[in-house]
Amino acid sequence: MTPAHRARADRMAELAEAEGVTWQPSSLLPGLSLRVTNTAGVQRTERSLSAAWNAAGHLDPALLDQAWEAAAREADVCGLRTYAHGAGTVHGSVSGCQVLYVQVADSAVFFSTRLRWLAETAETLTADWQAWSEILAFGAPLAGRTTFQEIHRLMPMEYAEVTDSGAVHLRQHHWPWEDYAPQASADLAEVTRETVEVMAAHMRPHLVSTGAGAAANPMLSGGRDSRMLTALAARESPDPTQLTAWSTSSDAGSALEELVAAEVAETLHVKHRIVTGHYRAFGEDFADYAEAVDYQASFHFWLMPVVRALRETPGSIFDGIGGGVLLGGGFADPADAARRTRRDLMSSRIQARSRYLTEAQKVLQHGVAGAVADRAQSGAWPTAERYADHPNAHTLTSYLLRTVPGIAPAPAKVLGGAQLTVMPMVTDQVAGLALQLPHHAKADGAWYPHLLHAADPRLSGMPTADDLTGTRHHKRRIASREGARHLAGLVRNGPAAGLLSAELAAADPATGAGVVVWQRLLNSQRSQHLIRGLALLSLWLDQYGTMVDDPDPRRMRHA
């Protein structure tokens, strides 16, 4: 490492310390500067250093005796392997849901779990308008892109390598999930039993022998995945009275989510807390979420009130990310798939994840709407094409277009910013079991009754919030006057205003008629998604606009 490299690493560490991060003793080699918290595992010999970490912590030290590919697969960890002469590898996890950013600069690799520490110490930053088109269309940048051209997020089994000669390469090791395919001979009862037991075994270390004792915090919505994990936490805990299930409004407009969650918690005899956001605090929640995910995703702002409470509550968090795509069968090709061409199927898989674009003309200028759609869908095409002929094509495509880039930051960074966060459903073992089941066994949630009964028979037959209603029961918080005025002010008073449709550009939220225009669009899922993306862009430009080359978002017009 050059003195400049080491000085930058020191500046990154100082930024982290200013945010309250406490480091373990630094690990310094001639070619390495590494700082980790006490949840990471580090093993040092005379001539090498290995490290591993994920959002869940409590790692088995034996992981560091394995090749990184095996460790990433076994425990879904990111990490590094490096040697005294300066060669080494920084790698991502098997699921891709653990967030790690890298930047190759001057024959060195800088890496961080926080994009901000890289961005604010970089010499050059260039806005990536392809990434921003994808945020608007999909909710997050695809294929490892970030809002900066110079910084990359590691995807499943990706790694950055510095060779003995000093050359730097960004590559992807074989992703084992590509090997998993439906098996006609799969025994549904046996796969169900094994899947539930694998999840339970993954959760068990986080329920015993931790600094918080038996305390744990399963997230509990009105859906199936979270109730399954809550049931398993109660089953595996040596003291279920130390569990607290947490619910909050997903801002989808249905009060039944919290009510159904309360019924589940009562059935399982688990303590339950419901934390909901206030209309007047919407702006603070949105800004705090954007900062927590480094402005890289636009989905889960409504988590912030419960996150603040969880910061004061010891115990690991359990989150059901990945359940819908891997277990639920909800991400599948249409019924007439056999009659469609290969290209039509690829397009349908992309359009299913970018359905928000059907409302783009209501939110964006005509030229901008078309350019964003062209850019975003072209960015998704390589992923769709890579898996076009795979037996789990739609599942893997959806996982890489939505779960990894857009959904994973919520447990890994937002909840993970409060307490250690465990994601049992995206482990390699669960993925392998789920992807081997024939599609018909999972279609439209067909597998869930079996899984729920295996987790706890008391859950059998209990309806979800979605089962009980097909309509919304109350106004979305984001569509309140407070929410509408806040978002309208962010977008209309900043550089993103030049992207707005004529109707929104003319709708002054300070007037009664103007705020109603914004409220109407925010009360519809698809147009709301696009407005959230523009608001996220406005916040990002407030933070980095003076630091990036060419910060004009109208560049998105040029596909």
UniProtKB/TrEMBL annotation:
It catalyses: L-aspartate + L-glutamine + ATP + H2O = L-asparagine + L-glutamate + AMP + diphosphate + H(+). Gene3D superfamilies: HUPs. GO terms for molecular function: asparagine synthase (glutamine-hydrolyzing) activity. InterPro entries: Asn_synthase, ASN_synthetase/amidase, Rossmann-like_a/b/a_fold. GO terms for biological process: asparagine biosynthetic process. Residues 219-403 form the Asparagine synthetase domain. Pathway: Amino-acid biosynthesis; L-asparagine biosynthesis; L-asparagine from L-aspartate (L-Gln route): step 1/1. This is asparagine synthase (glutamine-hydrolyzing). Keywords: Amino-acid biosynthesis, Asparagine biosynthesis. Its EC number is 6.3.5.4. Pfam families: Asn_synthase. The keyword Transmembrane helix does not apply. It is an enzyme of class 6 (ligase). It comes from Nesterenkonia sphaerica. Transmembrane segments: none annotated.
